[in-house]
Amino acid sequence: MNILFSPRVRTVSSRVIGLILAIILALSFSKWHFQAAFIEHILWFFGWFFVGIGVMGRIWCSLYISGFKNAKLVTDGPYSLCRNPLYLFSYLGGVGIMLITETFIFPIVFTLYFLCYYHFVIRQEEAFLSEKYGTAYSDYIKTIPRFLPSFKNFKEPEFYQVSPKHFRIFLTQVVWFIWVAALVQLFDELRLHGVLPSLFSWF
């Protein structure tokens, strides 16, 4: 396993990048605020829209993998739409937060980072799952796309066993999307009221 793409490194790097980004966002404003307010409002709306989808999607995923991650091959629910729904919904939530900045540059940079980094993360995890589950995983990847969802093979059981403890832990991870989105919104309000300086501007 390449340690650069391990869960521990992902967590640490995400926090470091998040801190740097928070400082930049606290001191930045959207040029659309003065040049085309309707674009600013559209970006804000779709930002919260995607944050909502990301949060609900991650909760949906966590319902299926709570207590079973790396313990069994989960192929139902969101995992029957694509092989990496947790990353898909994380991306949508992340790009939603970037859209709340009411700029295009931050969502674009985030998308490029996500595609470049998580391409290798997913490849590494696929190698691990292939080695662990063998034929079962080979059959799974033949019908289920890697990232972009397909409803052709969607299936969900009538009942499903869930670990409440693990599900609760996942919920504490999901709520961060809402808190960070609210923080970005708070930065904007503080700048408008002159509490924070506006040192950078972006389209």
TrEMBL record:
Subcellular location, principal: membrane
UniProt KW Transmembrane helix keyword: yes
Signal sequence bounds: none
Gene Ontology terms: cellular component: endomembrane system
Membrane topology: Multi-pass membrane protein
Gene3D superfamilies given in the database record: 1.20.120.1630
A GO molecular-function descriptor: transferase activity
Keyword set, alphabetical order: Membrane, Transmembrane, Transmembrane helix
Transmembrane helix among keywords: yes
Subcellular location: Endomembrane system
Highest taxon of source: Bacteria
Spans traversing the lipid bilayer: 12-30, 42-66, 86-115, 169-187
Name of the protein in its database record: Sodium:proton antiporter
Species in which this protein is naturally found: Acinetobacter pittii
